[in-house]
Amino acid sequence: MSTGTYTQLLDLACGVFLLAAVLVLWRRELTALVRLFAVQGVVLAAIAALSGIHEHRFELLAVAVGILVLRAGVLPYLMRRVLAASGETRETEPLVNVAASLLTAAALTLLAYAASRPLVELAPSPATRALPVGLAVVLIGFFTLVTRRRALAQAVGFLLLDNGITAMAFLATSGVPLIVELGVSFDVLLAVLVLQILTTRIHATFGGTDIDDLRELHD
Amino acid sequence: MLGWRPATAWAGLVSPATILGCAIVLAVRVPGHGPVTGYGGLARADALSAWILLVIGAVAVLACAAGPAYLAAENAAGHTDARGARRYGILVHAFLAAMAVAVLVANLGVLWVAIEATTIVTAFLVGHRRTRASVEAAWKYVVICSAGIALAFLGTILIYYAARQAGIAEASALDWPVLVARAHELDPAVTRMGIALVILGFGAKAGLVPLHAWLPDAHSQAPAPVSALMSGVLLAVSFTAILRYKVIADVALGPGFARTLLAGAAVLTLALAAALLLGQRDYKRMLAYSSMEHMSLIALGAAAGSRLAASAVLLHIAGHGLAKSVAFCSSGHILHLRHTTRIGRVRGLLGQAPVLAAAFGLAVLALLGFPPFSLFASELAIARAGLTGPAGLGWATAAALVLVLAAFAAMTARTAHMLLGPAPGRDGDTTAAVPAEGGGGGVAVPVRFGAAVWAPLAVGLLACAALGVSDVPLSSLLSTAAAITGGP
Fold it and tell me: What's the main place this protein lives (chain A) (predicted)?
């Protein structure tokens, strides 16, 4: 693959990656959030595969397949099961309305570009120039986590955060060592399982998954 | 109780005892012979790991010894059943294993994986009772800790990036000894971002601001022995990760950067903990905020960074682990006795259950820093190191001392309210809760406990006091471990 094609494909993938995160802030249907997250998983796998092909490190292709299975297959499947069990399809009114959320996403992206300048300057390359996109997705994930009220939307926020970090790992260093990658994927899978079970329990004990109902504990 | 017999419960002591045994072997060997490595360099035990492993072993023995009595009482009250007890046993041991892995790995990526694993296994322990409050606590715990610690992973990746750009091979670029040896080659700007994220992320797990909000909820809702483990050692294990990164940061960025972050987090955490202790009405939450208070003292000591401060920090971790586990385990028995965690509804404990009340009272005295308990010596040493330390830290320490005094007053008043006063059932006592089965309706006979209840509490208090009187058997390990994290 020529460097030009590689750069274009990488930029395309990163663009879709960021767009999926921004769309999460726009859509209110919980099923749409899950679908967007799956799309982001596919793009993340593409980023991993691209950096593997570019650097002629073909073990990264195996990692990319693993990411595809986990983030575009297993995790969306688990979340759809929660949705089917709870019967809730729409996010209640978020703490911040959609227009303000989208504006915040733009501000966070600018912030990400400003904050990641030292990262790009250390080793400028097509991949590291895309690092701000990863950081922007991390920040948008955090924002989703703190402004959404449904348990599932919070879980999607956490997973966006995690996708952003994984993307940064691939863009900066072509991924972390395999043992760490395996451990992280396993932890994320378990964390989502735990969140799934807890969502079911919240639904059983509170009669809904609105996090605003969780107000038993305070000082 | 199918599949759950007292013998099974006591078998749960085997693995903590093994951890303690391994820690003692390491503690004897490491100071003289240097770090032990294994599994192709993946596992590595230096004096710091040995010290923390000793604390894990000691607190785990106490908490697991307190487990059977706690579970029996929960079972009798109908809060759990044989299945719940079995799941409790499995999760507690997975929790211990994750913590042991976290202190025994050389690879900082695997360290992160192990600490995140502790979040996952303890989530169901926090939500063990399945009440509204405990499900809420478990949700907050998983979301805040996972998101917080994800930031630590981002920090780890940035350090890895800096290390790879400095020419360190892929296989060893997350190896802690390699990173320490070559820390001066790391790019300062990227390392600065990485260290800030790591302190923020692991700080979330260690109960430091700004991501501390899970701590009082999780510690107050978890079963008492699990609260003891979470407060006594999990906070310390996460803080050890910060200590390891601080060694890298001190070489790569100079000591000022990590010191400023840690001292700032320490003073803010302490201010928050003291403020919430002043108005506290729940005794388990009181103990949780006291954990935050002690973690901020530990962070302050780490910020001071001298050899003296480093050994005070390690001694404080051990003393706090022992005292807090006794306090939490006895709070579990108080909960079973009085069926409430409200301080206002617990009165006259000393008259009703003298042994339990004495254990709780002595543990709180230890946490307040009274001699002969070891927290007296370590708090004094941390204060001295802070006041005589680098410029700027003196003010932080002075502010911290004022806040510690406020916390001291609040905890003394609350504990005195619980222990003193007429025992429930006597005339004129209208505030007391309904007496427990053991207390008997209206009869003021002191409740007696079996050895399964008081022995772990007594052993914990004795160990904490012994550590305060003399640390001679451990002094060479302590000084070797302090040399790893402390400066000259």
Answer: membrane
